[in-house]
Structures are given as C-alpha cells and as structure tokens.
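=== RUN LOG ===
request id: a7f3
mode: sequence -> structure
chains: 1
length: 395
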Amino acid sequence: MIISYKYRIYPDRGAECKLDEALDTCRWLYNRLLEEISKSKENGVQLKMYDTQNMISSLKLENPDLRNVYSKVLQMVNYTLWSNIKGLFALKKNGRKVGKLRFKGKSWYKTLNYNQSGFKIDQDHSILKLSKIGNVKIKLHRLIDGKIKGVIIKKSGDKWYVIVQAEQEPEQQISDVKSVGIDLGLKAFAVDSAGYVIENPRFAEKSSDKLKKIQKKLSRAKNGSNNRRKIVAKLGKAYEKINNQRNDFLHKLSRLYVDGYDTICVEDLDVKGLKEKGNCKGLHRNIHDASWSKFLFMLSYMAESAGKKLIKVDPRGTSQKCSCCGSVVKKDLSDRTHECPFCGFICDRDYNASRNILILGMGQPLEPAEPEPLHHISMMQVLVMNQEAPPFRAG
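=== RESULT ===
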C-alpha cells in the first residue's frame, strides 16, 4: 500500500527561484500540449498520450527552459493533462454538462511531480535533494517508513510542501475483538453504536463572516494592484486555515476510531450524489464542510495500515429499521427520536442507525440495548485527546 507523508520544505532564495521557474515552465508545457491536442482535433486527428509525450523533446528547441526541468517531471505534466482529459470524458459520459479544458494562467500551476527518480531524501540531515533544483531543507516531524516511490513538490500561497509517497506492507490482520458502527450526519458529525456523539465542528460556517469581509474587499480592489494581490494572499491563508483545521480534526478522529476498534462499520455514502440532489445551497455547503468523503478515506487507509477492518454497508433503511427487533418504523427527517411501537425501544434516531450499520456490517443481530444517555464529545475534546488512550468504549 502507498502512504503519503506531507512535510514543510524551506528552499533558500536560489532554490525557490528555480522552483518558481520550473512551475512556470511546466505551466507553459501543459498549455502547449493542450494547444496541440485541440488543433489536431479540429483537423480530425486524434492524438494519444504517447504522441504528446514524444513532442516534449522537440519542444525543447522551441523553449530552451524545458532543459532546466527534470525530464520525469515534464513527463508527469503530460500525464496530468491526459488525466484531466479522461476525467472530463468520464463526467460527460455520465450525463454531466462539461466544457473544454482551460489553459493554465500565471501562478495556476502549483505542483512538480518527481515520480520514481530525480530526488533523494537524507533523513539524518533533513535534506531533500531535487534534480535541476538542488538541496532543500525539509522539516521531518516524523520519519518516513517504507520504500519511497516518489515526491510531489507543492506551492500553497507563499509556503512550500513536499508530499512523499512511500510503499509499506500493511500490518498483519488481527482477529475481531471490538467493533463499532458509525452514522455520519450534519447535526452531529458522527454518532456511533457505542453511544458517543461527535460534535460537528463546522469550520467553514464559523469562518464565513471573516471570509465575506475579505471577499468584499477583494471585489472592490483594482485588478493588477498590489493591494489586490495582498487581499488574494490573505483570502488564500484564510481558506488554508479552514482546510488545516478540518484535516486536523478528521485525522485525529479517524485515528481514535482505528486505535479503539478492530472492525469499523460505516455507510457506503454517495456523497457526490447527495451534494447534487435538490437545490438547497445551504445543505450542499454543509455537506462539503463536513467532508464525509475525506473522513471515510482517512478511516480506510488508516485501518488498512493498522491491520483493521473497514466495512461499508448499504445506507438504505438504516434510519427506518428498529435495531432491537428489526421492525420498520417510518420516520420523517424531522423526527429525531426512534420509538418502536412493536418492542418499545426508544433512543436517538442516529444512535439507532449506527446500531443498524453495525448489524449489517457484522452480519449478525446485536443484543437488546437498554436506553442510555449518549456521551457527547466536543470538537476540542477530539483535538486534545491523547492517542495512547482512546476514550471510546468497546462495542
């Protein structure tokens, strides 16, 4: 399995200048290859990926700056372009209305992909060596485990990062001891079958007033002015902070579940379909802010790395069925309490759904549950929890 590590890097003035020039050269190559594909299509010729890759050598005569960028990085520019084309084609095939690929404007190209070669990481001295760039200081806040397959240099605002892709062997699968079902939502981020309710942090919503003020200033700023560039940088930092807060919360919460349980059962949600359903912009915004897909992705790779099981189940009917007797109890979305007229079981709607998710995942009924108060965990409790002592009870 491939694990990605993300670190800050601190290039000196000379290395940073080379990195910026390499990004702009890759942007030029991306646009040039896209132009060749568009022209050939207009003339009735369908180019393939290897056709545009073969063009790179001849384009070095047109733009000598291409010689200052490592050859594998240039090849990955071509790969990225064709990946974008395939992505648009897949959307169009699924009935989505899509346009054409856009040319990359200045500062729109932000990654350099060193795949398999052209790099070396000295973990003892915290140095990243890049072909055609030189040595760059890297902040290794944790050691890299596994065989390094590639690195991606990424620019975000005025900061530089490296994403290290390492191949690891997953830990040996252990026998099932503790299991849990998790129901994701918007009122609470998650409710699990162990009786824990995780607060929805709503990072974007809490920062909406600040973002609106910055965006209002941006709309009034003159195009091309220094003031506008400063406001754009400020807006980028605000969005970066929200993204970092969200990632920190999701990473720590998924780590707590993986450390606390051997089998984790979740809904196989079509998050993209939920976003596109209906015309409620507020609902779409809240789903995006919750980042269910990212949480499920983190659970998936952490569970695989730790030798744990992640089981995805069909979400249909998990809220309507009684987790004690299995009877169907119809409820509207506004009904937040599950009251079964057949067996008398009364509990929180989401807690009942999490128990049903666990039943479906494990393939066996649970023991009858006694109504208990749910344990509420705030966002701050998740962020400060000690990973050596997960607070969750055994399911």
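=== NOTES ===
The first strand starts at residue 2 and ends at 10.
The two ends are 28 Å apart (CA to CA).
=== END ===
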